[in-house]
Amino acid sequence: MLTQAPKGTKDILPSEIHKWQYIEKEIAKLCHDFGYKEIRIPVFEHTELFQRGVGDTTDIVQKEMYTFLDKGQRSITLRPEGTAGVVRSYIENGMASHPQPVKLYYNITAYRYENVQKGRYREFHQFGVEAFGAAGPSIDVEIISMLRLFFDRLGINQVSLNINSIGCPVCRAEYNKKLKDYLSPNLDKLCETCNTRFERNPLRIIDCKEEACKKITAGAPALIENLCGECHSHFEGLKAGLENLGIDYTVDKNIVRGLDYYTKTVFEFVSSNIGAQGRYVAAEDMTD
User: Any idea where the Aminoacyl-transfer RNA synthetases class-II family profile domain is (predicted)?
Assistant: First the structure.
Protein backbone atom coordinates (compact mmCIF):
# COMPACT_ATOMS: atom_id res chain seq x y z
CA MET A 1 0.00 0.00 0.00
CA LEU A 2 1.25 3.48 -0.85
CA THR A 3 0.29 4.71 2.62
CA GLN A 4 2.59 2.21 4.39
CA ALA A 5 6.36 1.95 4.46
CA PRO A 6 7.80 -1.16 2.76
CA LYS A 7 8.07 -4.23 4.98
CA GLY A 8 11.30 -4.26 6.95
CA THR A 9 11.74 -0.48 7.06
CA LYS A 10 11.06 1.94 9.90
CA ASP A 11 10.48 5.67 10.12
CA ILE A 12 12.53 7.55 12.70
CA LEU A 13 10.09 10.12 14.02
CA PRO A 14 10.82 13.58 15.48
CA SER A 15 9.87 12.27 18.94
CA GLU A 16 12.77 9.77 18.90
CA ILE A 17 15.38 11.34 16.62
CA HIS A 18 17.23 12.80 19.61
CA LYS A 19 18.17 9.27 20.69
CA TRP A 20 19.75 8.56 17.30
CA GLN A 21 21.55 11.88 17.30
CA TYR A 22 22.97 11.20 20.76
CA ILE A 23 24.35 7.80 19.75
CA GLU A 24 25.75 9.18 16.50
CA LYS A 25 27.58 11.93 18.42
CA GLU A 26 29.00 9.35 20.83
CA ILE A 27 30.17 7.23 17.88
CA ALA A 28 31.96 10.21 16.32
CA LYS A 29 33.54 11.19 19.64
CA LEU A 30 34.71 7.65 20.38
CA CYS A 31 36.30 7.24 16.95
CA HIS A 32 37.98 10.65 17.18
CA ASP A 33 39.45 9.68 20.56
CA PHE A 34 41.01 6.55 19.01
CA GLY A 35 42.19 8.20 15.78
CA TYR A 36 39.61 6.76 13.38
CA LYS A 37 38.44 9.02 10.55
CA GLU A 38 35.00 8.89 8.97
CA ILE A 39 34.51 7.50 5.47
CA ARG A 40 31.29 7.63 3.46
CA ILE A 41 30.74 5.03 0.75
CA PRO A 42 28.03 4.58 -1.93
CA VAL A 43 24.71 3.02 -1.07
CA PHE A 44 25.14 0.68 -4.05
CA GLU A 45 28.14 -1.11 -5.56
CA HIS A 46 28.84 -3.52 -8.40
CA THR A 47 27.37 -6.89 -7.39
CA GLU A 48 30.68 -8.67 -7.96
CA LEU A 49 32.26 -6.75 -5.09
CA PHE A 50 30.01 -8.53 -2.60
CA GLN A 51 30.13 -11.89 -4.39
CA ARG A 52 33.93 -11.94 -4.22
CA GLY A 53 34.44 -9.99 -0.99
CA VAL A 54 31.65 -11.27 1.26
CA GLY A 55 31.63 -14.75 -0.30
CA ASP A 56 29.31 -16.38 -2.81
CA THR A 57 28.48 -19.22 -0.39
CA THR A 58 27.21 -16.87 2.34
CA ASP A 59 23.53 -16.38 3.10
CA ILE A 60 23.94 -12.67 2.35
CA VAL A 61 25.01 -13.28 -1.25
CA GLN A 62 22.83 -16.32 -1.91
CA LYS A 63 19.59 -15.15 -0.32
CA GLU A 64 19.55 -11.61 1.05
CA MET A 65 20.97 -9.06 -1.39
CA TYR A 66 18.89 -6.45 -3.19
CA THR A 67 20.33 -6.85 -6.69
CA PHE A 68 19.10 -5.31 -9.93
CA LEU A 69 20.23 -4.29 -13.43
CA ASP A 70 20.69 -0.58 -13.98
CA LYS A 71 19.83 1.14 -17.27
CA GLY A 72 23.24 0.15 -18.64
CA GLN A 73 22.46 -3.51 -17.89
CA ARG A 74 25.11 -3.60 -15.13
CA SER A 75 24.40 -5.72 -12.05
CA ILE A 76 24.14 -3.41 -9.04
CA THR A 77 23.52 -4.30 -5.38
CA LEU A 78 22.41 -2.19 -2.43
CA ARG A 79 25.15 -2.56 0.18
CA PRO A 80 24.32 -5.42 2.61
CA GLU A 81 27.24 -4.43 4.91
CA GLY A 82 30.02 -1.84 5.10
CA THR A 83 33.36 -3.61 4.96
CA ALA A 84 33.48 -4.55 1.27
CA GLY A 85 32.81 -0.98 0.16
CA VAL A 86 35.42 0.44 2.52
CA VAL A 87 38.04 -2.06 1.30
CA ARG A 88 37.18 -1.17 -2.30
CA SER A 89 37.64 2.52 -1.48
CA TYR A 90 40.94 1.84 0.30
CA ILE A 91 42.31 0.13 -2.81
CA GLU A 92 40.76 2.42 -5.42
CA ASN A 93 41.95 5.60 -3.71
CA GLY A 94 45.50 4.44 -3.09
CA MET A 95 45.30 4.51 0.68
CA ALA A 96 47.87 1.70 0.89
CA SER A 97 50.47 4.43 0.22
CA HIS A 98 49.31 6.42 3.25
CA PRO A 99 51.03 6.10 6.64
CA GLN A 100 49.84 2.85 8.17
CA PRO A 101 47.67 1.85 9.86
CA VAL A 102 44.83 3.61 8.08
CA LYS A 103 41.96 3.73 10.58
CA LEU A 104 38.45 4.42 9.29
CA TYR A 105 34.91 4.33 10.62
CA TYR A 106 31.47 4.43 9.04
CA ASN A 107 27.89 4.88 10.18
CA ILE A 108 25.62 3.67 7.38
CA THR A 109 22.29 2.21 6.38
CA ALA A 110 22.49 -1.28 4.84
CA TYR A 111 20.00 -3.56 3.13
CA ARG A 112 19.27 -7.28 3.37
CA TYR A 113 16.16 -9.17 2.33
CA GLU A 114 15.63 -11.34 5.39
CA ASN A 115 12.87 -12.38 7.76
CA VAL A 116 11.57 -9.37 9.63
CA GLN A 117 11.48 -9.80 13.40
CA LYS A 118 12.02 -7.75 16.53
CA GLY A 119 15.20 -5.73 16.18
CA ARG A 120 15.87 -6.99 12.64
CA TYR A 121 14.92 -4.96 9.59
CA ARG A 122 15.57 -5.05 5.85
CA GLU A 123 16.94 -1.53 6.02
CA PHE A 124 19.15 -1.28 9.09
CA HIS A 125 21.89 0.88 10.55
CA GLN A 126 25.46 -0.33 10.96
CA PHE A 127 28.42 1.26 12.73
CA GLY A 128 31.82 -0.22 11.98
CA VAL A 129 35.54 0.48 12.15
CA GLU A 130 38.29 -0.79 9.84
CA ALA A 131 42.05 -0.71 10.48
CA PHE A 132 44.31 -1.42 7.50
CA GLY A 133 48.02 -2.21 7.78
CA ALA A 134 48.06 -3.48 11.37
CA ALA A 135 49.01 -7.16 11.47
CA GLY A 136 49.48 -7.81 15.19
CA PRO A 137 46.88 -8.56 17.87
CA SER A 138 47.18 -5.10 19.43
CA ILE A 139 44.75 -3.62 16.90
CA ASP A 140 42.21 -6.33 17.79
CA VAL A 141 42.62 -5.38 21.45
CA GLU A 142 42.14 -1.71 20.56
CA ILE A 143 38.91 -2.31 18.67
CA ILE A 144 37.49 -4.53 21.40
CA SER A 145 38.39 -1.92 24.02
CA MET A 146 36.71 0.75 21.88
CA LEU A 147 33.46 -1.19 21.81
CA ARG A 148 33.70 -1.90 25.53
CA LEU A 149 34.17 1.83 26.22
CA PHE A 150 31.30 2.70 23.89
CA PHE A 151 28.93 0.50 25.87
CA ASP A 152 30.20 2.02 29.11
CA ARG A 153 29.57 5.55 27.83
CA LEU A 154 26.02 4.58 26.87
CA GLY A 155 25.46 3.00 30.30
CA ILE A 156 25.17 -0.51 28.85
CA ASN A 157 26.97 -2.52 31.49
CA GLN A 158 25.46 -6.00 31.41
CA VAL A 159 27.41 -7.34 28.46
CA SER A 160 29.97 -10.13 28.27
CA LEU A 161 32.75 -10.63 25.75
CA ASN A 162 33.26 -13.90 23.85
CA ILE A 163 36.34 -14.40 21.68
CA ASN A 164 37.65 -17.05 19.29
CA SER A 165 40.12 -17.50 16.45
CA ILE A 166 39.22 -18.94 13.07
CA GLY A 167 42.85 -19.01 11.94
CA CYS A 168 44.26 -18.08 8.55
CA PRO A 169 43.80 -19.68 5.12
CA VAL A 170 46.73 -22.04 5.82
CA CYS A 171 45.55 -23.62 9.07
CA ARG A 172 41.89 -23.36 8.02
CA ALA A 173 42.59 -25.50 4.96
CA GLU A 174 44.04 -28.24 7.16
CA TYR A 175 41.17 -27.92 9.61
CA ASN A 176 38.59 -28.15 6.81
CA LYS A 177 39.95 -31.60 5.92
CA LYS A 178 39.41 -32.79 9.50
CA LEU A 179 35.97 -31.21 9.64
CA LYS A 180 34.89 -32.86 6.38
CA ASP A 181 36.10 -36.24 7.62
CA TYR A 182 33.99 -35.73 10.75
CA LEU A 183 30.89 -34.59 8.84
CA SER A 184 31.00 -37.10 5.96
CA PRO A 185 29.12 -39.93 7.76
CA ASN A 186 26.24 -37.54 8.52
CA LEU A 187 25.83 -35.70 5.23
CA ASP A 188 22.34 -37.13 4.71
CA LYS A 189 21.27 -35.62 8.05
CA LEU A 190 22.51 -32.10 7.31
CA CYS A 191 20.14 -29.49 5.91
CA GLU A 192 20.16 -28.73 2.19
CA THR A 193 22.10 -25.50 2.68
CA CYS A 194 24.84 -27.22 4.68
CA ASN A 195 25.16 -29.91 2.03
CA THR A 196 25.98 -27.19 -0.49
CA ARG A 197 28.52 -25.72 1.96
CA PHE A 198 30.27 -29.05 2.54
CA GLU A 199 32.64 -28.84 -0.44
CA ARG A 200 33.12 -25.09 -0.77
CA ASN A 201 33.03 -23.78 2.81
CA PRO A 202 32.51 -26.50 5.45
CA LEU A 203 33.39 -24.13 8.31
CA ARG A 204 30.07 -22.36 7.79
CA ILE A 205 28.22 -25.55 8.72
CA ILE A 206 29.24 -24.89 12.33
CA ASP A 207 27.37 -21.57 12.08
CA CYS A 208 24.11 -23.22 10.96
CA LYS A 209 21.08 -22.55 13.17
CA GLU A 210 19.14 -25.69 12.15
CA GLU A 211 18.74 -27.97 15.19
CA ALA A 212 19.71 -31.13 13.28
CA CYS A 213 22.93 -29.52 12.07
CA LYS A 214 23.72 -28.11 15.52
CA LYS A 215 23.46 -31.58 17.03
CA ILE A 216 25.82 -33.05 14.44
CA THR A 217 28.44 -30.29 14.78
CA ALA A 218 28.34 -30.29 18.59
CA GLY A 219 31.13 -32.85 18.73
CA ALA A 220 33.12 -31.54 15.76
CA PRO A 221 36.82 -30.77 16.15
CA ALA A 222 37.42 -27.14 17.15
CA LEU A 223 39.34 -24.85 14.82
CA ILE A 224 40.95 -23.08 17.77
CA GLU A 225 42.64 -26.37 18.66
CA ASN A 226 44.06 -26.68 15.13
CA LEU A 227 45.70 -23.28 14.65
CA CYS A 228 49.10 -22.85 13.01
CA GLY A 229 51.91 -21.42 15.10
CA GLU A 230 51.42 -17.84 13.90
CA CYS A 231 47.66 -17.83 14.55
CA HIS A 232 48.15 -19.43 17.97
CA SER A 233 50.67 -16.71 18.92
CA HIS A 234 48.26 -14.05 17.64
CA PHE A 235 45.45 -15.39 19.79
CA GLU A 236 47.67 -15.61 22.86
CA GLY A 237 48.69 -11.99 22.24
CA LEU A 238 45.03 -11.00 22.02
CA LYS A 239 44.25 -12.64 25.35
CA ALA A 240 47.29 -11.06 27.02
CA GLY A 241 46.31 -7.63 25.71
CA LEU A 242 42.76 -7.92 27.01
CA GLU A 243 44.01 -9.09 30.39
CA ASN A 244 46.42 -6.15 30.60
CA LEU A 245 43.45 -3.80 30.14
CA GLY A 246 41.33 -5.68 32.67
CA ILE A 247 38.77 -6.73 30.05
CA ASP A 248 37.12 -10.02 30.99
CA TYR A 249 36.46 -12.54 28.23
CA THR A 250 35.31 -16.09 27.55
CA VAL A 251 36.75 -18.25 24.77
CA ASP A 252 33.85 -19.57 22.68
CA LYS A 253 35.05 -22.07 20.08
CA ASN A 254 31.70 -21.92 18.24
CA ILE A 255 32.06 -18.31 17.07
CA VAL A 256 32.97 -18.59 13.39
CA ARG A 257 31.28 -15.55 11.74
CA GLY A 258 29.39 -15.93 8.50
CA LEU A 259 31.41 -13.86 6.02
CA ASP A 260 34.35 -15.15 4.02
CA TYR A 261 36.72 -12.25 4.68
CA TYR A 262 37.17 -12.99 8.39
CA THR A 263 40.48 -14.39 9.58
CA LYS A 264 42.12 -14.93 12.99
CA THR A 265 40.28 -12.98 15.72
CA VAL A 266 36.48 -13.05 15.91
CA PHE A 267 34.46 -11.80 18.87
CA GLU A 268 31.07 -10.73 20.11
CA PHE A 269 29.66 -8.83 23.04
CA VAL A 270 26.64 -10.77 24.27
CA SER A 271 23.50 -8.99 25.32
CA SER A 272 20.91 -9.81 22.67
CA ASN A 273 23.91 -10.01 20.29
CA ILE A 274 24.59 -6.32 20.73
CA GLY A 275 27.94 -6.21 18.95
CA ALA A 276 30.03 -8.57 16.85
CA GLN A 277 33.15 -8.22 14.77
CA GLY A 278 36.37 -9.81 13.64
CA ARG A 279 39.62 -9.47 11.73
CA TYR A 280 39.67 -9.58 7.94
CA VAL A 281 42.14 -10.72 5.33
CA ALA A 282 44.49 -8.03 4.03
CA ALA A 283 42.88 -5.58 1.63
CA GLU A 284 45.07 -6.73 -1.25
CA ASP A 285 43.78 -10.29 -0.77
CA MET A 286 40.21 -9.11 -1.23
CA THR A 287 40.92 -8.49 -4.93
CA ASP A 288 42.13 -12.04 -5.69
Answer: 1-152
